[in-house]
Specification:
Helix content of chain A: under 10%
Oligomer: heterodimer
Largest sheet of chain A: 6 strands, mixed
Shape of chain A: globular
Order of helices and strands of chain A: EEEEEEEEEEEE
Shape of chain B: globular
Radius of gyration of chain A: 13 Å
Distance between the termini of chain B: 37 Å
Distance between the termini of chain A: 41 Å
Number of strands of chain A: 12
Order of helices and strands of chain B: EEEEEEEEEEE
Largest sheet of chain B: 7 strands, mixed
Number of strands of chain B: 11
Strand content of chain A: over 45%
Largest interface: A-B, 24 and 27 residues
Helix content of chain B: under 10%
Chain lengths: 115, 117
C-alpha cells in the first residue's frame, strides 16, 4: 500500500537558518504530493502541493519539488522565522487531485525556530 | 476562507460510555467529510469517508459498529465512539471537502483529544 516517510523531529533551528525536511513516498500509481502545516492549537492547513513529476509547489517561502526518480518531496525554506514553528506533515493522494481524495500522511516533523 | 469546526476539542470520560464528536463546515457545503485518527508520534490514519445522505466507507481494520458515522446534512458529520475503552484514547481529526469533485482540498478541524479512563 501507499506510505509516506518523514524525517523524525523535533528539528530545532535558529532564525534565518535554512530548512530541509525530508519526505519520501511509496505508491502504486502516480500520486499527488502535499505538505500540510499544523500551528500550535490549530488544525492542519495545506501549505503546498505538486501533482506530477518535476512540479514545484511553493507557498510562503517554502518549496518542494516532486522527484519521481527518487520518490521524494523534500520541503525547503531558505530563511526560517520563529513564526514557522509548527508541525509539518507530508502526504500523498493517489492520482491527479487537488487533495480532495484519501490522504496518506507521514508521521509529521516538529519544527522549532529560536531567536 | 473555508472553516471547519470540530467539537468538543477535548473529552475525558469513563470506560464504557459513548462519545459523540461533531464536525461542521461553517461557510461551505461538504458532500464529503473524512475522519482521521492520530496516535502519539504517528501518522494521521484515515478511518472512514463520510458522504452526505449515504453510508460511510470505512478503511480496512476500522470497526464500523464501534465508530458510528452520520453525515445527515451538507454541513455536519458526527463520529460516535460507542462503548469506549482506554485503547480508544486518541486524537481524532475531521476534514471536509467543498463541492463534488476531488479537485478541492480538504479543510481540517482542530481535532478532538479523547481520553478514556
Amino acid at each position: 500500500g501507499d506510505s509516506v516517510t518523514q524525517m523524525e523531529g523535533p528539528v530545532t533551528l535558529s532564525e534565518e537558518a535554512f530548512l530541509t525536511i525530508n519526505c519520501t513516498y511509496t505508491a502504486t500509481g502516480y500520486p499527488s504530493l502535499f505538505w500540510y502545516v499544523q500551528y500550535p492549537g490549530e488544525g492542519l492547513q495545506l501549505l503546498l502541493k505538486a501533482t506530477k513529476a518535476d512540479d514545484k509547489g511553493s507557498n510562503k517561502g517554502f518549496e518542494a519539488t516532486y522527484r519521481k526518480e527518487t520518490t521524494s518531496f523534500h520541503l525547503e525554506k531558505g530563511s526560517v522565522q520563529v513564526s514557522d514553528s509548527a508541525v509539518y506533515f507530508c502526504a500523498l493522494s493517489e492520482g491527479w487531485t487537488g487533495g480532495g481524495n484519501k490522504l496518506t500522511f507521514g508521521t509529521g516533523t516538529q519544527l522549532k525556530v529560536e531567536l | 476562507g473555508a472553516v471547519v469546526s470540530q467539537h468538543p476539542s477535548r473529552v475525558i470520560c469513563k470506560s464504557g460510555t459513548s462519545v459523540k464528536i461533531e464536525c461542521r463546515s461553517l461557510d461551505f457545503q461538504a458532500t464529503t467529510m473524512f475522519w482521521y485518527r492520530q496516535f502519539p508520534k504517528q501518522s494521521l490514519m484515515l478511518m472512514a469517508t463520510s458522504n452526505e445522505g449515504s453510508k460511510a466507507t470505512y478503511e480496512q481494520g476500522v470497526e464500523k459498529d464501534k465508530f458510528l458515522i452520520n453525515h445527515a446534512s451538507l454541513t455536519l458529520s458526527t463520529l460516535t465512539v460507542t462503548s469506549a475503552h482506554p485503547e480508544d484514547s486518541s486524537f481524532y481529526i475531521c476534514s471536509a471537502r467543498p463541492g463534488q469533485g476531488s479537485n478541492q482540498p480538504q479543510h481540517f478541524g482542530d481535532g478532538t483529544r479523547l481520553s478514556i479512563l
